Amino acid sequence: EIVLTQSPATLSLSPGERATLSCRASQSVSTFLVWYLQKPGQAPRLLIYDASNRATGIPARFSGSGSGTDFTLTISSLEPDDFAVYHCQQRSSWPLTFGQGTRLEIK
Amino acid sequence: EVQLLQSGGGLVQPGGSLRLSCAASGFTFSTYAMNWVRRAPGKGLEWVSSITGSGDSTYYADSVKGRFIISRDNSKNTLYLQMNSLRAEDTAVYYCAKDMYALGSYKMFDYWGQGTLVTVSS
Lengths: 107, 122
Fold this sequence. Notes:
heterodimer; A: 107 residues; mainly beta; 50% strand; B: 122 residues; 7-stranded mixed β-sheet
C-alpha cells in the first residue's frame, strides 16, 4: 500500500499570501497524484489531477507540480474561499490511498 | 447536470448491517466506474470500494473486505454499498463519487454525492 504523507498538518496564512502544500508518497506514483479541497460540511471537490492539470472550473491561482514521490500544491494568492482542508490521493495502484489532509486556516 | 443523491445511513449497533444508495443522473451511468469514499471524524479521506461501469470488477480496501459489498443497478442508475458486520471504526461520512472518465477505471473523482453519516454505536 502506498502511504501519502501531507505536510504541514495545519497551515495558517492570510488572504493574499502564497500557500505551498506538500504530499509525499512512500513509493513512486509517477504523476498519478490528485488534489481535492473540502470545506466543512461539504463533499470534496476535485482541484488538480495527474499532478499538474487543473480540473474544470478551477482558478489559475491553483497549480500543482511534482512527480515520483514529491508533489506540491501551490495557491498563488489566497482568497477567503480557499481556506479549507486539502487532500492528496494517488491513483497509481490499488488500494487507492489519501493523505491525512492539510488544514489551511486563516491567520 | 451531474447529480449524485445519496440515501441510507444512520445509527446502527456493532455487528449490524446497513445499505447505502447513490442515485445518479445527468450522465451515462453504465459507462462510468463508481466509488465509495469515507471520512471518519477527525480523520482524512479513506477510499472504501470501486466498481467498474459494467459491474464486472470490484475493488475493496482491506479494512472492509469481506464485510462490505459494492454493487450497481445500471437499469436504475443507482450505486449501492451493503455494509455488514459493522464496527465502531466504520463510523464516518460516506460519499459516493463518479470516476472522471468513461469506459475505464481512472480512479479519480470529479463528482461526489452529498455524503451520508453512518454511526456504529451501542
